[in-house]
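TA notes, week 10

Several of you asked for a full example with nothing omitted. So below is the full record: structure tokens for the whole chain, then the designed sequence directly under it. When grading your own attempts, check the secondary structure regions first.
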């Protein structure tokens, strides 16, 4: 993972609630074991018709959202099954931040463990961001250290648990954080072995 501190990017608004992981990455694409290549399958059943042609009525296919890296969506984003492929698909497509009023717990944790920042904001703030991003190209800055989303007009505070915040700031997963304590682990193992 790369360290996440401050990030600015274009917003893609997804004005839908209860977006489940099967909508994020449909089950027919779960055969891969590597993390790459899932971006092309993101929201597949919404982005493409039965012949594989892009649907004009799905906003992610609108050129004005090309290069979007911040997804703003409705309540309960990432509900459904616990597939880790959902954050892999979002990340492979290019999203680094997902903002919503709430997230399904397992999805939320999977995102943070894979380097995607999930930001919970009040529903009225999310609706305001979605509305602005539907009307015009909207860029946001997310400052993880200060825990704020900057809209240009205001700073919106968000909460995050210290443990995942630390992981994201350092760009380390749980194994990486454990390896920071390698000297202490080695000393403990040596003292345990000396007593045997």
């Amino acid at each position: 993972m790369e360290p996440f501190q401050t990030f600015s990017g274009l917003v893609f608004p997804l004005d839908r609630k209860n977006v489940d992981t099967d909508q994020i990455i449909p089950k027919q694409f779960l055969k891969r074991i590597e993390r790459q290549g899932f971006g092309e399958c993101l929201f597949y059943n919404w982005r493409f018709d039965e012949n594989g042609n892009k649907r004009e009525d799905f906003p992610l296919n609108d050129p004005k959202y090309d290069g979007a890296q911040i997804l703003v969506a409705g309540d309960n984003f990432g509900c459904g099954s616990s597939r880790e492929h959902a954050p892999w698909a979002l990340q492979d497509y290019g999203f680094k931040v997902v903002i919503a009023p709430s997230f399904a717990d397992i999805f939320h944790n999977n995102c943070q463990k894979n380097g995607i920042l999930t930001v919970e904001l009040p529903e009225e703030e999310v609706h305001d961001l979605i509305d602005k991003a539907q009307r015009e190209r909207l860029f946001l800055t997310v400052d993880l250290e200060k825990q704020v989303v900057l809209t240009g007009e205001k700073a919106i505070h968000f909460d995050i648990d210290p443990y995942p915040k630390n992981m994201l700031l350092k760009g380390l997963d749980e194994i990486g954080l454990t390896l920071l304590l390698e000297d202490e682990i080695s000393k403990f193992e040596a003292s345990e072995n000396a007593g045997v």
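The chain has one domain: 6-190. Use that as a sanity check on your answer.
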